[in-house]
Every structure is written in C-alpha cells, then in structure tokens.
Amino acid sequence: MPRSVNSVASRQRRKKILKQAKGYFGRRKNVWTVAKNAVEKGLTYAYRDRKNKKRTFRALWITRINAGARLHGLSYSELMGKLKANNIDINRKVLADLAMNNPQAFTEIVNKVK
C-alpha cells in the first residue's frame, strides 16, 4: 500500500507561517525555512516584550510622579509613603496621568497628604 501524506495540512501549515512573515525583508518573507525561523524568533520577542512593556510603563509612571512630587518639595518615595499612611488608594498610572495632564488635581492630592 502506498504511503499517505497529508499534503493539504502541510501546505496549510506552511501558508500560515508565510502569512505571518508578510512584510519581512528578502528571503525571510517567501522562503519556507528562512521564514519559519524568522517568525519563531519574532514570536519569541513578542512574548518577551509583552512582559517588558509592563516594566517600561511602570518606570515611566514613577518618573512622572517623581517629577510632579519634586515640584511640591517631596520625593517619590515620600509621596507614596504618605499616600499609603493616609489610606489613599490611587494607582501609579492614574497618579502619573494627573501629574502630567491635571496639575491642579495632583496638587490637591499632595496637599492632602502633607
């Protein structure tokens, strides 16, 4: 009996990878073996950087809060400590947004904890 190979599934698998490689440069976009490696590496970077994005944004928020707090004579750590002591639950993302886009509201919060 002849050997049966599922060429439909094989082609589908290759097409899926080549579709993901759309926009890549040179042989990375149309040669199966090269595209497969490029896509796998790209997916690895995507997974890693979804985690790194959270770190990066947190660092940005902290920088903005620190800059806003320094205008009022406090450091970042002093401000956060006083917020905790006064049971003011406001996250860093919102605080950073207030410090940048609504300085009056940020000043109110700082004056409340001083």
Descriptive report:
The structure is a single chain. This protein has 114 residues and is mostly helical. Helix content is 74%, strand content 0%. The protein contains 5 helices and no strands. The N and C termini lie far apart (86 Å).
Count of helical stretches = 5
Structural class: mainly alpha
In total, the number of strands is: 0
Percentage of residues in strands = under 5%
Classify the helix fraction into a percent range: over 70%
Beginning-to-end CA distance, first to last residue: 86 Å
Overall average residue pLDDT:
96
**Total discrete domains:** 1
CATH class: Mainly Alpha
Q: CATH superfamily assignment?
A: Ribosomal protein L20, C-terminal domain
What composes the largest sheet?
none
Radius of gyration using CA atoms only: 26 Å
Name of the CATH architecture: Orthogonal Bundle
Quaternary structure type: single chain
Please describe the topology of this protein.
Elements lengths: L6 H14 L11 H39 L5 H10 L6 H10 L1 H11 L1
In short:
The protein is an all-alpha fold.
Characteristic key phrases:
c-terminal domain of poly(a) binding protein, 74% helix, rod-shaped, 5 helices, mainly alpha, 114 residues
